[in-house]
Amino acid sequence: MTQSGTMPAMSKAMQQCVEACMACHTVCEETMSSCMQMGGQAQMQIMRALIDCSEMTRMCADMMMRRSPLSAEMCVMCARACDMCAEACMSMPEDPQMMRCAEACRRCAESCRAMAGAAM
What we know:
The chain has 120 residues and is an all-alpha fold. The protein is 74% helix and 0% strand. It is elongated and about 50 Å long. 37% of the residues are buried. The mean pLDDT is 90.
């Protein structure tokens, strides 16, 4: 915190990571909706991965924005959740929404791994 009580501006890398997390969160939510419309075709493993990833990415972005001292650790966990979700989505390669979600998850995981290694 600066002397005036305001937080210093986020680094460009942190801003990009927050954006990647929020984009991933949005796509996971859209994909869950798509899965629910499919009915029985959506496997529970995929739904669990989507829920975990959606919640982790939102929480990770929130923690970075408020400069939590736990942000780096959260980024590690978020990257793991994103990797698991991308892998689950890849089990339905014929579904364009699943492929879109897998790509968003991969981008977010990469960004979170980079942030986990950076000082926050």
